[in-house]
Write a structure and sequence with these properties.
RNA binding, S4_RNA-bd_sf, 5-stranded mixed sheet, S4 domain protein YaaA, Structural Genomics Hypothetical 15.5 Kd Protein In mrcA-pckA Intergenic Region, Chain A, RNA-binding, about 20% helix, single chain, alpha+beta, two-stranded antiparallel sheet, about 80 residues
């Protein structure tokens, strides 16, 4: 259950999965892969409420990614 007052949004993907690094770029949190690496080294992300800092982590439809600002992003398929 999300923390009270947490923002939620959905991101639609058309592929089987998206990596955490690709999702971070898709959300316009950074401009480049190098920035993704730096952000993951300093900020807290969670996938399905488990902390994760691997930019290659596969995110599938139904997964929920929590951003450092506590926004929860649900990945959905087309």
């Amino acid at each position: 259950m999300p923390p009270q007052g947490a923002k939620q949004r959905e991101i639609r993907i058309t592929t089987e999965f998206i990596t955490l690094g690709q999702l971070i770029k898709l959300l316009d949190l950074v401009n480049s892969g190098a920035e993704v690496k730096a952000l993951l080294a300093t900020a807290r992300f969670a996938v399905n409420d488990e902390p994760d800092d691997r930019r290659g982590r596969k995110i599938y439809p139904g997964d929920i990614v929590t951003l450092p600002n506590q926004t929860r992003v649900k990945v959905i398929s087309k």
